[in-house]
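RESIDUES AND SHAPES:
===
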Amino acid sequence: MELPLPIPDRRTAGRALAEALKDYAGRSDVIVLALPRGGMPVAAEIARALEAPLDLMLVRKLGVPGYPELAMGAIASGGVRVMNDDVVRGMGISQEAIERVAEEERHELERRARAYRGDRPWPDLKGRCVILVDDGLATGATMHAAIDAVRAQHPDCIVVAVPVAPPDTIQALRPLVDEVVCPHTPEPFQAIGLWYRDFSQTPDEEVIALMEELAGPVPVAAAPTGVRYVAVPEADWPDYCETFGRQHHGWLVNLWQVDTQALESDRAGALASGTLLAGNEPLQAVHLAPDGQTLAVEIGPAGTARRFTAGPVRRLWRERVDESHEGMRIDQGDGRSLLIEFRAPARPEELDGLAPSEL
């Protein structure tokens, strides 16, 4: 399939690249990694055609202060940073300015990881053939960062596939990877969007939908001792919190704050080293703020209830205990989790006299 110029849209570009990559079809070691957001529709077409799994390579451009479209470098998942030394020197950009931009982009990188991937485990790239895909390249800084991030995981080969890029950018990338597929290298180049008829922004919702389709749903996280966690879709968070608070109003609860990593590997140890914020106290309400970032839990006797907050909320889970009843787990952006736990499906009057350790 020949790719026309200007390119009609990203999906057309993906189908053309898939045809150029057909020798990789059916291989069990191939994985397609998209650079979101614009690279995702392109990569999805490639993954479908090659019958290969799809995932993301999260990279953020570091824009020059005052000229954000001009890349002075890029960062990628895993702490990889690549700088365009010519741009940095030529524009006299200070290290302080670089760090300020890098910190801002790191926060966006973390947001996208939470929004797009949820709690999916990152793919193991060791020994794999990795196809990195974007909707086009300009300076190549973001793709350079992606290549470095992939190479750190010891793949068997790396392929870069993009529909359009300047000839000097492609020339600079070729020594870094095993193959570069790029149908169009116009000059002068100026900007990626000039070479598309439809270069409208790819929304987060489309990236998430394609992940659900081609990478599968967020897995259930199982915990030991009869407890398992089931992810609540982000769109359902407001209704879930309201319903949870209403249905369990007055129920006696324990409220824990624990380390999320410790919780996932050793629940008993996480509780032992965590903080019991409230024990054997009635639940009054659970509220999710309108921005969806902060969750508040009110616990204690009516009129004197204490308010505990968690946020920014990264993920909500139903906590299932022996399939009989459930609590709630709130993962926060700071690496901690808040647990609202019911150790028995009973009303407060049935639990009078029990110590927190018994609940």
Q: What stands out?
A: Residues 221-358 form one domain.
